[in-house]
Amino acid sequence: MVCPSRCEAVFTALRRIEPILVLEQLGSSFFDTTLVMVVKDRSANATYPDADLSREESQQKAMSDFYMIYNLIILLTGILPSLFLAKIGDRGWRRVPIVVSLGGYLMSRVILLLVVLFRLPLEVMFGAAALFGLSGGFAAFWSGVMTLASLGSTPADRSKVLMRVELLYGITGLVGSLVSGHLFQLDNSNLGKGTLLLSLGTLMNLLCFLHSALLLQVKQVTNQEPEEDCQILSQVSSDPATEAPAGMNKVNMALLFTAAALYVTAVGGAMEILSVFVMKAPLSWNAAQVGYGMAAGCMIFITSFLGVVVFRRCVSESVLIMIGMVSFASGIFFMSFVTETYMFYLARSLNMFALIPMPTIRSLLSQQVPAASCGITLTSLQVSLKFAGLAYIPAFTKIYQKTLSWFPGVVFTLSATITVLAMIPISIFGCRSPQRREYERIQGE
């Protein structure tokens, strides 16, 4: 009797969303490390006859150009499909956004594997980016995951469940990144550098796709409190009892939209360049160091989670956002002057709370509108952030290329400056918002 019950428990666990998260993040970690090293290798002999650039500067320009075009293709092709898949999911086909987006993940991994095996031109990856975007990409996958996690939890436990999903994703990314660099270096086959690592990543994405299509269960807990639906994406809340207003607070919404756009511009622009920056002298990272660097980024998921748990007890949400922004601004400004690997990790350690602002902004935004308008408001925010990417991706890339010869850290200083500007609308929002009343316990003598 014990064995069947254990088998049933294991099967039930396998039908949850967590195995998909683990497999997808491991596969993505392996893919990201391989892609960085392949792009570096293919850009080694890049030349620009019309520009007076050294060999290293030519390589950096070629790498940054590739990532600019690659990310812009994903951004442009992914906007409409992600919205379309979200609408299909809202009509009851909850697994469709996850299954379709994971199909895109799998195709992009297979295409990179073909590029490595058959020495195809690197530009083939632009086609992979288009397929990935047309499948909905990360936006469709992550919104699908969050929706399933929300449906499978009660309103009282929802924020806790979503935080656990974020934490699991970060821990898996940490493990995958640490392992990926060493696996890349262990590959001594004649098929192409990174074949072993990429094959393992592709296998994990295949298992992930099959799991989502065949095993994943959509479990819905009866919602006893419909008015709390607009808090689905709220991962942090200083006052759980806050109710959505009857009308829209347009001024507060404008302040939150502005802060979100500025902060995403700062973070996205800096991260766009960081993977290229560590490849040049004086850092000149190898595959193992690339894996360690990605692991440091995944650690921020964990430290931000702990920061929310600690700070939410004693500060308001607007102050919580400011803490996260100060954390990112200080770390990325220090990154401007990094010349040694240990300095890179010091800078990243200052970013420990950098993931707090965006979930908190979404939480505050959901409290500025009626429940019936919450979904479209959060979707509008996500679309506006995608359009912001159309501006900051090429802008940061071109600034980096222009300043390579005299101060390549200019883009990180610019990112810190934009983050400071993002604090202004949040400060105004904090002044406009009603403060929580504090009560003092009067001790009797």
CATH topology call of the largest domain:
Growth Hormone, Chain: A
**SSE pattern:** HHHHHHHHHHHHHHH
Radius of gyration: 23 Å
CATH architecture of the largest domain: Up-down Bundle
Low-confidence parts, pLDDT < 50 over ≥5 residues? 223-244, 436-445
End-to-end gap:
62 Å
Q: Kindly provide the name of the CATH class of the largest domain.
A: Mainly Alpha
Query: Largest sheet, described in full?
Result: none
Average pLDDT confidence is: 85
What can you see in these coordinates?
The protein has 445 residues and is an all-alpha fold. It folds into 2 domains: 1-217, Up-down Bundle (Growth Hormone, Chain: A); 228-433, MFS general substrate transporter like domains (Growth Hormone, Chain: A), CATH 1.20.1250. The chain has 15 helices and no strands. The chain has helices at 2-14, 18-42, 55-90, 96-117, 124-134, 137-151, 158-186, 195-214, 250-277, 287-311, 317-335, 341-350, 357-366, 374-402, 410-432. Helix 2 (18-42) runs parallel beside helix 4 (96-117), helix 3 (55-90) runs parallel beside helix 5 and helix 3 packs antiparallel against helix 14 (374-402). The chain is globular and about 60 Å long. Residues 223-244 and 436-445 have low confidence and may be disordered.
Key structural traits:
mainly alpha, Growth Hormone, Chain: A, 2 domains, 15 helices, 0% strand
